[in-house]
What we know:
Elements: H1 16-32, H2 34-56, H3 61-90
Amino acid sequence: MVPSNDKNSPGKSPSDDDRGVGTALREYAPYLTLGFQLAAAVALFLVIGIWLDGQLNTSPLFTLIGLFVGTTGGFIKFFRTVAGLQKKKSGK
């Protein structure tokens, strides 16, 4: 006889699967926003650089500076967040 994977099978409560998913989401949720934060930093500073170039007629100087600052700041934030999360995880 093959064991059943039914949630209502004996010895297994209906919420066992739900607890596993909830725990996994809580554990990985801080990592899910990292890509968005990096992209937002780059896009924000790039748009500011493009705007400044349009106002000052200095194209592509501030566009490149904005791209560099956004990328650098985004990666710094990314690595600090990952390092902090790893430290917090190993300190448990």
